[in-house]
């Protein structure tokens, strides 16, 4: 696996290394040893999939807070998405900055999302499916969110938002701790 750290410390774009022959290819998409050598979380509590019928659908920005803060490993298994993370760690030098990457079924890239980040994505194609592994069990009492269009972040989405849930569209403006 090839790990490329993003401009947000601790977040990585991960690309599989393919072994190809006339049948197709083989590639590793998760390895406890390789992740651990980089100091990344190797805890796996759940695997989830999300199917999205329409291009322009937006899901996010989601996170869980302590004691249930999640690390995520996100991959698009069908179609294409624009995956976005926002660093909400209060003591981070990149606090409130965002990073986006295109994940597609063709490029096989994954995004490693550290705890303390908000995560969301927009579908770039109809019938897109997202597979993600998380380090903690879902705990609704620790769920928080940030609005996808919160001016505090200035996220630039590639498409007009065609669909967003009432819940995701109504998160309040983000205010850093102490404000």
From TrEMBL:
Any Pfam family the entry gives: dTDP_sugar_isom
UniProt keyword list: Isomerase
Gene3D superfamilies (alphabetical): Jelly Rolls (2.60.120.10)
Broad class of enzyme this protein falls into: isomerase
Any single GO CC term annotated in Swiss-Prot or TrEMBL for this entry: cytosol
E.C. numbers: 5.1.3.13
Lineage top rank: taxon: Bacteria
Catalytic residue positions: 62 (proton acceptor), 132 (proton donor)
Family: Belongs to the dTDP-4-dehydrorhamnose 3,5-epimerase family.
Subunit structure: Homodimer.
Known function: Catalyzes the epimerization of the C3' and C5'positions of dTDP-6-deoxy-D-xylo-4-hexulose, forming dTDP-6-deoxy-L-lyxo-4-hexulose.
The protein's name: dTDP-4-dehydrorhamnose 3,5-epimerase
Organism annotation: Thiothrix nivea (strain ATCC 35100 / DSM 5205 / JP2)
């Amino acid at each position: 696996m090839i790990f490329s750290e993003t401009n947000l410390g601790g977040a990585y774009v991960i690309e599989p290394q393919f072994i190809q022959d006339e049948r197709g290819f083989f590639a590793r998409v998760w390895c406890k040893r390789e992740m651990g050598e980089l100091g990344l979380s190797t805890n796996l509590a759940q695997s989830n999939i999300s199917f999205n019928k329409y291009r322009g659908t937006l899901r996010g920005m989601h996170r869980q807070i302590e004691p249930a803060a999640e690390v995520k490993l996100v991959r698009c298994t069908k179609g294409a998405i624009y995956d976005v993370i926002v660093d909400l760690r209060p003591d981070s030098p990149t606090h409130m900055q965002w990073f986006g990457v295109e994940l597609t079924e063709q490029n096989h890239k994954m995004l490693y999302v550290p705890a303390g980040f908000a995560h969301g994505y927009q579908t770039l194609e109809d019938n897109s499916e997202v597979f993600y592994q998380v380090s903690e069990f879902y705990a609704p009492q620790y769920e928080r969110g940030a609005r996808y269009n919160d001016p505090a972040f200035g996220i630039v989405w590639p498409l007009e938002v065609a669909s967003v849930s009432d819940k995701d569209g109504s998160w309040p403006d983000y205010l850093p701790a102490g404000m």
